[in-house]
Design a protein that fits this description.
Structural class: alpha/beta
Oligomer: single chain
Strand content: 15-25%
Number of strands: 12
Helix content: 40-55%
Largest sheet: 7 strands, parallel
């Protein structure tokens, strides 16, 4: 006997998976419980969450909360190690994304081959927002990156790593995947340089198959001292430094690419 959840689950799966064996059996004959049907619906409507890389021997160095003052220093350090990184940027957090300096920083890092992703407009905890408010946080940042770089990011990181099923639904509606981390340098928690370096030394010694890091470009000690140490330490262990999209097996970093815009009155926070 049909239930609404079973019908909805199979309807969604029919859209997402063209190979469903409808020719072999009817929906009524399908051996699926209501609980399993609801689970299938949820998986089809919630954005995926990535908290680790999948490609062996890779490190995804990521930075949150920019663009900011130390951005170019970071990009230049990465270049010394032939490394690619990912920058999760805000629209209006520490600084407005549309300032001349920040536009130039974004273009510099993007042209250097680094990945640009969203950290949403302000730095609000997603779980405190309505769905409409969260969608606005996402789309404002997306619109800014389309104007400045001509790209809409495929990945978004929630501030504080805080999300729930409702926010996953909003991210899915915006066609973005969520990225968190499995290693935190501790800079946003007040770690000293020695503490952050010790954390990097420990993860290098443990030598996991891959590492998805969290750093913040708004800390000069991270940009000027900890990052060079981390790069040297992890390189000595034979890791390859790649973008998040690459560390996840070569996913597309952007939902769309177009020609960057020209500054006008809408380039404001």
């Amino acid at each position: 006997m049909f239930t609404t959840s079973r019908i909805l689950a199979f309807s969604l799966l029919a859209t997402l998976v063209s190979a469903l064996p409808y020719s072999e059996r009817s929906l009524e004959d399908a051996n699926i419980s209501d609980k399993d049907a609801i689970s299938l619906v949820e998986r089809a409507t919630l954005a995926p969450v990535y908290n680790s890389c999948t490609k062996p021997n890779t490190v995804a160095i990521t930075f949150d909360d920019g663009p900011y003052t130390w951005n170019t220093n970071i990009v230049n350090t990465l270049k010394k190690y032939n490394a690619k990184a990912t920058f999760f940027v805000n629209g209006n957090n520490w600084q407005c994304i549309y300032t001349n300096d920040n536009v130039n920083r974004l273009k510099y890092l993007y042209n250097a081959g680094h990945q640009v992703a969203s950290h949403t407009w302000h730095h609000y905890d997603w779980t405190t927002l309505t769905n409409d408010q969260l969608l606005s946080e996402m789309t404002q940042t997306d619109a800014a990156l389309v104007k400045i770089l001509g790209v809409k990011p495929a990945f978004v990181r929630p501030p504080y790593g805080s999300y729930n099923d409702e926010s996953r639904k909003v991210a899915a509606a915006n066609k973005q995947s969520i990225v968190v981390w499995d290693f935190d340098s501790g800079d946003a928690d007040g770690y000293t340089v020695k503490q952050s370096e010790a954390a990097y030394a420990a993860i290098a010694k443990a030598h996991p198959s891959n590492i998805l890091t969290l750093n913040h470009e708004t800390h000069n000690t991270t940009a000027l001292t900890v990052l060079p140490y981390a790069m040297k330490t992890l390189k000595a262990k034979g890791y390859e430094f790649v973008t998040v999209a690459e560390c996840l097996g070569g996913k597309n970093p952007y939902l769309s690419k177009t020609k960057a815009g020209t500054r006008d009155a809408t380039w404001t926070c």
